[in-house]
Amino acid sequence: MRDADPAAILTAMALRCLIVDDNTGFLRSARLLLEREGIEVVAVASTGDEARRLRDELRPDVILVDVDLGSESGFEVAGRLREHTGTALPDVILISLHAEEDLAEMIAVSSAVGFIAKSLLSARAIHEVLDRPRGT
User: Fold this and answer.
1) Where are the alpha helices (DSSP H) in the chain?
2) What is the CATH number for 86?
3) pLDDT digits (tens, 9 = 90+) for 110-136
4) Residue 20 near residue 94 (C-beta atoms within 8 A)
5) For residue 11, is it within any domain?
6) Count of domains in the chain?
7) Residue 129, φ and ψ in degrees, nearest 5
8) CA angle 98, 27, 88 (to 5 degrees)
9) Within a 10 A sphere around the Cβ of 94, how many other Cβ atoms?
10) DSSP character for 53?
11) What span, in angstroms and rounded, lies between the C-alpha atoms of 26 and 42?
12) pLDDT digits over 19-38, tens only?
């Protein structure tokens, strides 16, 4: 059995995440998956208002936002989550069942640092997005 890289484990454990999605089944599954992989999921939210309150209260490092939030646009929610609050702003990553190619133009002009398809969601995918040079 191969041992995990201790530095990678410490890095992943240090990352605090908030997940915003209106699907409770997905929230539960994503939380279990990410926590198993060493991400600390500090909370989940199902609306933009709830996400903003939790952002201010818990100050996560990264927020995953579904682009389809029922009556809300995940793109608009992502923008509101990046509004200055007097504290350090978390990175926002958009997530969706849709393929990245289908949303590429909207992702490019959004305030999010990147995108992950829900089927590819993992701690590794989050770190890959966060480690990419910005503006590319």
Assistant:
1) 6-14, 24-36, 48-58, 74-81, 100-109, 123-131
2) 3.40.50.2300
3) 999 999 999 999 999 999 999 988 765
4) no
5) no
6) 1
7) -65, -45
8) 90
9) 27
10) H
11) 16
12) 999 999 999 999 999 999 99
